[in-house]
Amino acid sequence: MEKPNSYCEYVASLDNDNIHRIYHDTQYGFPIESDDELFCRLTLEINQAGLSWTTILNKQDNFRKAYSNFNIEVVAKYDNVDITRLLSNPGIIRNRLKINAAINNARKIVELKNTFGSFRKWLDKNHPLTIEQWVRLFKMTFKFTGGEITKEFLLSTGYLRGAHVEGCYTYNIINEKKPMWLK
After folding, report:
1. Taking a C-beta distance cutoff of 8 angstroms, is the pair 142, 42 a contact?
2. What residue numbers bound the domain in which 116 lies?
3. Is residue 179 part of a domain?
4. How confident is the model at residue 7 (pLDDT cuts 50, 70, 90)?
5. Shortest CA distance to 92 belongs to which of 41, 57, 144, 142?
6. Of 5, 43, 129, 139, which has fewest CB within 10 angstroms of its CB?
7. What's the average model confidence in pLDDT over 16-24?
8. How far apart are CA 124 and CA 101, in angstroms?
9. Is 10 part of any domain?
């Protein structure tokens, strides 16, 4: 089989209960209102680095449990006991750099919330930027965020155009929700 031209094309032939199909149809590219869910997506994107997205999708519930349901305020207070707990959890990616990045990023998001009112408001304030500008901003602000992680985070949360092709059914659903890339 030829390599698909888009994620939309890839999932089109998958069963409705396939984890990629579910993610594509219900999460990918949809605007996220909750700061905790934005933090969740950023953490999952960081953990995907060097691995397959399938691995992350299959472990996302484990991540949610391990990281206190991605409650930013709670994760920002994690200490060495929590790091040890996470490093011994076989249900998540046990990489010290990625775990430390999640905790440091939670702390940074708490700062952003205190300054801008929310992580989402900070993202909105900086929109629109070119992808190069976003990458520079994310590298200055967060840990473990390079070009691909930043791009996928922004695509998957509706800040950048391109998560879905125009002929995709989900594309129309997302457009009704007025993602940031439409503004």
Report:
1. yes
2. 32-157
3. no
4. very high
5. 57
6. 5
7. 98
8. 23
9. no
Please state the rounded mean pLDDT for residues 42-68. 97
Distance CA 178, CA 94 (A): 36
Domain-embedded: residue 129:
yes
Q: How far is 40 from 119, CA to CA, in rounded Å?
A: 12
Q: Tell me the one-letter amino acid at 11.
A: V
* Rounded Cα–Cα distance for residues 126 and 79 (Å): 31
- Dihedral pair phi/psi, residue 5, rounded to 5°: -80, -15
List, as one string, the DSSP characters of 99-165: HHHHHHHHHHHHHHHHHHSSHHHHHHHH-S--HHHHHHHHHHHSSS--HHHHHHHHHHTTSSS-SS-
Q: Check which CATH number belongs to the domain holding 101 and give it.
A: 1.10.340.30
pLDDT (mean) for 10-33: 97
Q: Is the pLDDT of residue 77 over 90?
A: yes
Let me know if residue 54 belongs to a domain: yes
CB within 8 Å of 43: residues ≥ 6 apart: 63, 67, 70, 102, 105
